[in-house]
Amino acid sequence: MVGTTSRNTEVEGVEGGVGLTALLVAAARAIETHRHDALARDVFAEHFVRAAPACAEWPVHPGTVEGGDANPLWGRFARYFGLRTRVLDDFLLRSAHTGGVRQVVLLGAGLDARAFRLDWPPGCVVHEIDREGVLAFKHKVLDGLSATPKATRVPVAVDLRADWVTALAAAGFDPAAPSVWLAEGLLFYLPPAAETYLIDTVHRLSAQGSALAFEVKLEKDLLVYRDSPLYTSTAQQIGIDLLSLFAREPRPDSAGDLVAKGWSTSVHTPFEFTHRHGRGPLPEENDALAGNRWVFADKPRR
Ligand SMILES: C[S@@+](CC[C@H](N)C(=O)[O-])C[C@H]1O[C@@H](n2cnc3c(N)ncnc32)[C@H](O)[C@@H]1O
């Protein structure tokens, strides 16, 4: 195992522990999909939510959100996930269509349906890494919908705190070909040593011309926002205590580590994209999103 501390080993599937956060994001995407000004559309998202008894009461439509946009969880936080989905959709599609990359790796893929909903160029392979229980649930729902992927989809059931490289290689990943990697809503659940290993491994397996996007939280002490509306309403409305799932040890400087390895990086607040798209969350007092950053990294062609 990479790293010794872990808060989320108990539950393997989507019904609890960190797996349940995949359903939280799916519900947010379902709500975003039904907005008249949707930033991203994911027609699969509400099917995941409706298939899980743990979320029987969760909304999947903005019209049924109590308090509407003022609801800190299903209003503002859901919109955050909608914006994040859009920005990272654009990143992946740019890498594939403009950068010519044909190999995609979704780390902590959860219920990400990008293999099914994005228009990939011919020849694309999408590797989806998550734990076995999460992927088993995903497959059950997608099979029930007779969903057809728009790329070659390769699920890789493995724990990212373990030796996931062997599993990815066995699944056919080719380190000689450029790749695009995504760690969306993942790193803060991993022990710091597992994050360092992940970044080192992405570097090692990335041919020149590869790209990586990931999300980090910059706060030294995550508890500083424990009373924020976002964390308290997530706990009160759906019983997910995000702070208890996050790994709270000091984080590595992954963006800095990539620069030291020769990558070029750019670091953005989500709010920059809110302004760019004309909609999305804005900063507020006592804001659990204040330290969130989206990092985009490129391994230069020489
Ligand atoms: C907040 S969800 C995000 C899912 C997806 N990236 C998205 O944005 O829709 C976090 C995901 O990370 C996965 N995850 C957390 N720790 C993991 C680990 N140690 N190994 C593999 N997956 C893990 C969870 O199972 C969950 O699917």
From TrEMBL:
Alphabetical UniProt keywords: Methyltransferase, S-adenosyl-L-methionine, Transferase
GO biological process: methylation
Keyword set includes Methyltransferase: yes
NCBIfam families: mthyl_TIGR00027
Pfam annotation, one family: LCM
Similarity field: Belongs to the UPF0677 family.
Keyword Disulfide bond carried by entry: no
Protein name: S-adenosyl-L-methionine-dependent methyltransferase
Documented EC number(s): 2.1.1.-
A GO term for molecular function: methyltransferase activity
InterPro entries in the record: Ppm1/Ppm2/Tcmp, SAM-dependent_MTases_sf, SAM_mthyl_Trfase_ML2640-like
PANTHER family associated with the record: S-ADENOSYL-L-METHIONINE-DEPENDENT METHYLTRANSFERASE YKTD-RELATED, S-ADENOSYL-L-METHIONINE-DEPENDENT METHYLTRANSFERASES SUPERFAMILY PROTEIN
Function: Exhibits S-adenosyl-L-methionine-dependent methyltransferase activity.
